[in-house]
Structure formats: C-alpha cells, structure tokens
Amino acid sequence: MSAIEIRDVTKQFDKVVAVNHLTLSVPTGSIYGFIGPNGSGKTTTIRMIMNILVPDSGQIQVLERSSASQVRDHVGYLPEERGLYKRMTVRQVLRYYGQLKGRSLAQLDPMIKSWLERLQLSDWADKRVQTLSKGMSQKVQFISTIVSEPKLLILDEPFSGLDPVNADALRDAVLGLRREGVTVVFSTHDMAAAEKLCDRIFMIFKGNKVLDGSLDEIQSRYGQDTVRVRTGTGAAALAGMAEVDSYIDIGNFQDVKLKGDAQAFLRALSQKTPVFHFELKKPSLHDIFVRIARPTAEDMKPPPGAVQ
Amino acid sequence: MSRILVVATTEFLTLVKTKAFIIGILMLPLMLGLSFGFQIFAARHADVEDHGFAVIDQTGVLYPTIVQAAEEHNRKSGAGKERTGPYFVPSEVELNGREVADVKADLSSRVRKKDLFAFVEIPAKVLDVSGTTADQIDYYTETPSYDSLPDWLNQVLQKEITGRRFAAASVDRSLVTQLTRPARVTTLGLVERKADGSVTEAKRTNPIATFALPFGMMYLLFIALMSSAPQLLTAVIEEKMSRISEVLISSITPTQLLLGKLLGVAAVAALLALIYLGGGVYALMQAGQYELVQPALLGWFVVYLLCAVLMFGSVFIAIGAACSDLKDSQTMLQPFMMLMLLPMFASVIVLRQPNSMVSVLASLFPTGSPFLMLIRLAMSPPPPMWQVALSVVLTLSTTALFIWAAARIFRIGLLMQGKPPNLPELLKWIRA
Question: Which of A30, B148, B260, B273 qualifies as a cystine partner to A199, CB 3.0-4.6 A?
Fold first, then answer.
C-alpha cells in the first residue's frame, strides 16, 4: 500500500520545467529519502504533494486520497525555509500548530510534554521562541510537525544546520516514528543521513527522476564498475591497461573505475603483476550523487537500467 | 469553523498582549486628558505677568476710568499663589507741550527696552458726538499677538466713551440699553402633541448632541479601525517572510486562515470600542447627559465597526500577501488609505447638512458608509430607515466582495516572493 502515489506529474514555472513527468510510489511505513542538488525539483515535488503547488499535469494521491488537502490532519509538514512566531512561547506555538491540525489541548499537552523532554527542551517550554538558538528552534519546529501524531511526515531538509548531537536526536526520533508505523519522506543533502535512515531513495536531477530504489539496488547498479586492488607493483601496474577508465591511488590500494567487466580486468591484471587484494567496491551514495550531479555531459546520463 | 476560531483566538491574544495595544488603549484618553488639562492649566497659569502700559489721554478725562478698571481687573486676578491672570498697570503720559510724535518715539523706545509692554493714544475727538469712525484709539506694541490687554482696553473704553457721548447728547443711557437689548434666534427641537391633547415644550438643542456626539462616534470608529486592521498587514508580511505561512496553509485552507485573522482583528477592534464607548457612556452619565446615551446608536456603531474592520482588514491582508516587504506594501496601500480618509473630509458636509443629496450619496457609498451613515444616525433627525438598510446591504455586499477578492490574492500571494504584482497581475490572481 502506498502512502504517496505520484503519477506522471509535471510542473513548469514560466519556461523552466521544475518537475518532468515524475512517477513515484512511497510505500506506507517506509522512510523515503529525496535527494538531489539545489534547484533540482525536490521542494517543488514536496510542495505538490502538500497541494501547496498544483501540478500542471499528472495526479498525486496522498494517504489514498486525491489531494493532501483532504488528509491535512494526518500529514505533518516541515518546510525547507521555516519560521516560528518569535513572540510566542514554545508551548504556545506547539499548541497553536497542533490545534490547527484539529487536536484538542487535552490531546496535545501530554504529547508536547513528552516530546520536549525527549529532545531536551523542557526548560524552554515557557520561554519565547526568539530566545532559542537556531538548533533549538529547529527542534521545536520538528516537534510542531509531529505533535499532531501524523500518519505521513514530510520533512524538507530536516537536518540542515543541526550540530551532530541534535542531528542524531532527530534521526532517532524519525526512526522511532517509523517503528510506530509513520511514513516518513524527507529531502536532504546529507548523504550519510540518507544512507543510514532511508529504506528507499529517490533522486531528482533537473526535474527528472534519475534514481529510485533501495540503497542496495542503487549501489549495485552503480557499483559494477569500481574495484579496489592491491598489487605487487602498485599503481604502476594500472598504467596503459585498456580495461581501466581511471583510478585513484590511495597508497597501498588503488580504486579503479573500469570500462568493462571486472573479471576480465582481474585476468589482465594478474597476468601483469601479483594481485594481493581485489574487491568489488560499492560506491557510497555520496559518490553516486556527485557522479550524477557533476556537470559533465557524460555523467549526467543515468546508467543503463536506471528507472526512467 | 473550529480552525477559524483557533486562528482568530490566537490572533486576538497575540495582538492584545502586545505593548503597542496597551499603549494604544491608554493613548487616546491620555492624549485627550493631557490636552484638556494643558488648556486649563495654560488658561490659569500661563499669563500671570504684570503688563505696564502708558496712556496718552488727549481727552483728559478717560485715564481715571482706566486706572479704576485696572484696579478692579487686577483684584479679580488674585494675588500671590492664587493669582490666575495678568495685572494691567497703566501710567499716564503728559505731553507738556511736546509733539505727540516725539512722545510716541520715546514710548516706543521704552517698549523695546521692556520698560513698558505697550502704550495707548486716545485722541480728543473720540468723545465728540459728531465724530466719525476715523477717530480711533491707537494701541502700540511689540507683541501684537497678545490680545488680552487691547481687548480689555476696548471693553473699558467703549463703555465709558459711549456713556459720555450719550450724556453729551442728553440721551438716557439706560433707555438706550433697554431699547437695544438683543432678540436672539434660539434653536429648539420640535413640540409634540400628547395623548391628552396638550402640547409639550420644545427642548433647546444640545450642542454636544448636535455636533460632538456624531463626530465623536465617527472618530472613535476611525481610531478603533486604525488601531487594529493595519496590524494585519505587518502580521501577514511577517508570516510570509518567515515562511510560517507555508506551515499554516499545510494545516488549514487559505480562506480559513484569512477569516480567522479577520475575526481576530475584528474582536480586537470591538474590545477597543467597548473600552472607549464604556468610558464615554460613563462620562456622559456622570455629566448628566442621559439623553445622549442611545442603545440603538451603540448597536449601529458595532455593526458599522465590524463592517469597516472586515472590509479594510481584508484589503490589508491582501496587500500583505501580495508584497514581500513593508516598503512595497506602502505604495499599494496609498489608494486604500485615501478611501479610509475621504469620509473624514466628507464628514464636514454631512455634519452641516445631513440630509442633503451629497450627504445621502456619500453615506451610501460602501467604503464611506460605516463612518458617514453613523454620523447621520447620531444626528437629529435620523436618516430614513430605508437609507440605513440600503447602506448596510451595500456595505455588507462590498465587505463580502473584498473578502472574496482578498482570499483569492491571499491564496496565491502567500507563497510568492520577490517583486510585488502590478494591478493586471492582481486582477489575474483574483480571476484565477
């Protein structure tokens, strides 16, 4: 069952196509990471899911309804550029946002207390928002998103600007919510966070979907052409080999990007020099991200077999 | 509806808890009180100087009268700490064969040196029965704006001079006074025939009821409106700039948000009006002006206040949503500020001729109606009921139209950044 179904959605601003014929399905109960460089269409996609922007064409279903507006009370949304009422206290803000989601104060107050304790903000409950640090404000904003107990949580860059301790606290909170059955969609530039948290990853680049799948699926798609080797003659053995596209010398080891099959390369290499270590290497999400987003004509092309 | 009330309650509490609101509430009565207090203080204490003045009395008989009148005036002004007015201190100047021009030059020098405040030249001809209006008394001073001394002199000398002219012409002054007593025109209300056939006495018109009450009601409505509705503009721009709007409209519809904000600010205006009206009613009761406390008029005040706040409030919200900063909003606001101020200018005509064609049309024009029809309702005779009903219908319809258009602009403008839209773009948003 899908928490979000996006079918062939396109959105254009003037002559710029922000999202181009996007199709995506977010399974219920999963953590789905939206990645992509700045201006690639992540926020536009999220805003269309939230029905803040209307698609030019295509359909979006949220929690099995034709629009997020019909299920507003069950969707928590943390926008990328966020703000809070500076003159209100933390408790007032959280109550206000919760009440707008149709929750009563009797329902909200225990939730607010519990989340403030969990994110170590209890002492700040009755302080004005303007007295909080940036990290604290961000945690308050996060609580405001989840205090109404949503079924679907959409977080646009939730970890940006957070120190490692607070980022970990928020990651734990997200994982906890997933365990409770909440579907989480979040966009991020933090590839490490995406690798750790996400069940599935979607990457958008220049409005087009270039990746969609589990981390394993994506890595195996991109990981066939890189090996780590250790040979008797070091990097010198790689010079002039027809199978080698490029390599990075990291001392005792060399990371080699191949033009063709890894086994053929192993055979050719072992004929030239003794091979002490040969490892098929999975690229990190960071590597894949950089490879796709790097502004060269070759690398902008999705690999064969990537989801179109 | 409950979400609208949540927004309204939060808006209301946010606005009334600000220092600006509390200062705003205190400001009007404080300013009025200070203004009255200062005037009373100034009247009592500002002018407690001794004003010495020289008199060139060419009649030779009027100076003693001036001295006597000055003593009487100074006695009434009190002494020491109880003194509440100036002392006039005359001194007679004898010509002793000198030219009048030379004497006047000397006296002018003394005035410049502050040895004297002024001097007066009374020509001999002023007592002639056959004289002309050219025979005037000249008052010379360096401070022509100070009129207490010349006014007092005028009063003292006119009485004495005319008395002497009557005597010279052998006319009985008391008879002249009796015959020339004024027969003034007094403005009264109408008489009524009672059930027993008798006719009631007409009442004298009350100057407070005639002008002060209608103008005061309109002014109060204007103050309540201006103290509340413009805050919507800054609130919406702040929410837009800090991206709070995006969170809000992911929870409720833009129309719910707009209506909540309008209701919240209408409640603020109502609270302000309640405080001021309550104070006003209390003051009138204390002053014994019971007939000025009209419950129906207070009811109309509330109706028109709510219409005005909702109508202009929706404009402020729409402009706030369309603009990205306060500077841009000021330019867009100017035509609407004129619409709000026009009734203040038109009120002069309506107060003078409440039932003229111009007044009727102005009080039916929707953006002016809350102010001008309220003036007419506070005046006597009140406008025909059909005109009041028509004004309410027109105002409510315009209010609904403004709210509808504002909601359309709000919905689109709230997420727009950068350059504000021009008029054709705004119209496109409304039609979208």
Answer: A30
Residue numbers in A near B18 (CB within 8 A): 87
B65-97 pLDDT per residue, tens: 999 999 999 998 888 877 878 899 999 998 888
Residues of B in contact with A53 (CB under 8 A): 415
10 Å Cβ neighbour count for A138? 22
Enumerate the β-bridge partners of residue B321.
Answer: none
Q: Are B370 and B214 in contact (CB under 8 A)?
A: no
Contact predicate B368/B362, CB 8 Å: yes
Q: Are residues B210 and B355 in the same domain?
A: yes
Q: What is the C-alpha separation between A38 and A294, in angstroms, rounded? A: 12
- CATH number of the domain where residue A230 is located: 3.30.70
Nearest CA in chain A to B235: A85
> How wide is the angle at C-alpha A233 spanned by C-alphas A232 and A238, nearest 5°?
115
Residue B48 belongs to what H/E stretch?
A: none
Rounded Cα gap, residues B138 and B123, in angstroms: 9
Residues A38 and A168 in one domain: yes
From chain A, pick out residues whose CB is under 8 angstroms from the CB of B246: 52, 77, 79, 81
* Same domain (yes/no): B270, B417: yes
d(CA A207, CA B36): 69
Quote the domain boundaries for residue A246: 224-281
pTM: 0.72
Chain A CB within 8 Å of residue B110 CB: no
Chain-chain contact of B247 with A88 (C-beta, under 8 angstroms): no
Closest by alpha carbon to A75, among A210, A206, A183?
A183
Break chain B down into helix, strand, coil percent, rounded to 5.
65, 5, 25
Tell how far CA A31 is from the center of its chain: 9
**Residues B401, B345 share a domain:** yes
When CB atoms are compared, the residue of B14, B247, B253 closest to A77 is B247
Query: What is the tens place of the pLDDT at every residue in B114-162?
Result: 999 999 999 988 888 887 766 789 999 998 988 889 999 999 999 899 8
Looking at the structure, tell me whether residues A97 and A196 fall in a common domain. Answer: yes
Nearest neighbour of B6 by CB, restricted to A53, A77, A100: A100
Q: Which residues of B touch A52 (CB under 8 A)?
A: 246, 249-250, 415
Nearest of B333, B336, B390 to residue B367 by alpha carbon? B336
Cβ contacts of B242 on chain A, cutoff 8 Å: 83-84, 86
Among A52, A85, A144, the residue with its CB nearest the CB of B249 is A52
Which class for B31: exposed (0-12), middle (13-18), buried (19 or more C-beta within 10 A)?
A: exposed
